[in-house]
Amino acid sequence: MIRLGTLATRSYAYALDDCVRKAAQAITYAGHAGPFSWHFATDADASVRAAADLAEKLIPGCRSTVTELPAAAEDGQPYKEERQKLIARGQQELFDHARADGADLFWSIESDVLVHAKSLRVMLDGLTFDHGYYDISTCTYPSQGGGGFLGGRGDPARPIAECFEEDERQVPAELAKEHKKLKEEFAALKAPPSEDLQKRAEEIREKLKACPPKGNVFELNAKRWRRRGWLDNAYPAIGIGAMLPSDWCGMGCTLLSKRALALADFYGYEGKGTQDLFLCWHRWWPAGCRINVIPHAPCDHVIRPREGLREGHVHCYAYHEPLGEAQGHLRLKQMPWAGL
């Protein structure tokens, strides 16, 4: 049995019908006989029950269920602790239901991700590669926060590696001096850092990340090879035909083996960092579960309006370069989103 799971909070249910339609398309394309069941968790909205009904209509033999979560304050902005804990509670509900159902595989689809028609088929292939080398198979999609395509390198200390280190960036002299002083203060500590010091460190880190790199990833790799955090820089010039090892993943279009599902929970999660990275580094990595990322079948992401983007919701459309020397490379364009 393949169990699908989707968390749809109030601020992120706007593309849910299209999310369901694309998943149904992928199931048809995969030619998988099922059976399928789809569980939705929400703090919200009659539209979620309508989407559950649509899933039963479009996916033969699918049984859909909805769990209503306690209402919680959320402003729609990602990466805040209370919001992250809300997401974790919802995803915990999905994992619990899938395990109770005896699911052999669990397919996580986020409510604002439109999966590729080939997504399910290639993820199934990803889990059978080398007799189960991977326990988590993912199709990449563009980040909500603008980091690039999901997947890449990292380690427990830095869940997503920096794409460009300080020595690879054009850092103003004053900022470099400030950062050097901060490192000296941390080195001299005899006790845990104060909240003020941690806050200053975060501010400086964000300023450093905003500094432009001294060249593109090819130029910088020629000078020094590094493990880079996001897919675009970890595996530049990759796209169609590829499946790649990844140290981390999101939950937007992610297929879990029975083993990975059995290990998935959020006990001990404090809302620091995203809940998907908690799973990667606190549950799967210690158990030796391997993750792949598949840019062969990239998903689209429908994101909320924000400063610097088009007005209204934005359809981040993923595709492969059709012609020229870069043919097959992973690409992204943004367009207004209206839905079907």
SSE layout and pairings?
Elements: E1 2-7, H1 16-30, E2 36-42, H2 46-58, E3 63-68, H3 81-100, E4 105-109, E5 113-114, H4 119-128, E6 136-139, H5 173-187, H6 195-210, H7 217-223, H8 231-234, E7 244-246, E8 253-256, H9 258-263, H10 275-284, E9 291-294, E10 300-303, E11 314-320, E12 330-336
Parallel strand pairs: 1-2, 1-4, 2-3, 6-9
Antiparallel strand pairs: 4-8, 5-10, 6-8, 7-9, 10-11, 11-12
Helix pairs in contact: 1-2, 1-4, 5-6
Compose a concise summary of this entry:
It contains ten helices and twelve strands. The chain is an alpha/beta fold. α1 (16-30) packs parallel to α2, α1 (16-30) packs across α4 and α5 runs antiparallel to α6 (195-210).
Could you explain the architecture of this structure?
The protein has 340 residues and is α/β, with parallel strands linked by helices. It folds into 2 domains: 2-154 and 229-336, Spore Coat Polysaccharide Biosynthesis Protein SpsA, Chain A; 171-211, no CATH class. 34% of the residues lie in helices and 17% in strands. It has helices at 16-30, 46-58, 81-100, 119-128, 173-187, 195-210, 217-223, 231-234, 258-263, 275-284; strands at 2-7, 36-42, 63-68, 105-109, 113-114, 136-139, 244-246, 253-256, 291-294, 300-303, 314-320, 330-336. The chain has an 8-stranded mixed β-sheet, with helices on both faces. A 4-stranded antiparallel β-sheet has the order 5-10-11-12. Helix 1 runs parallel beside helix 2.
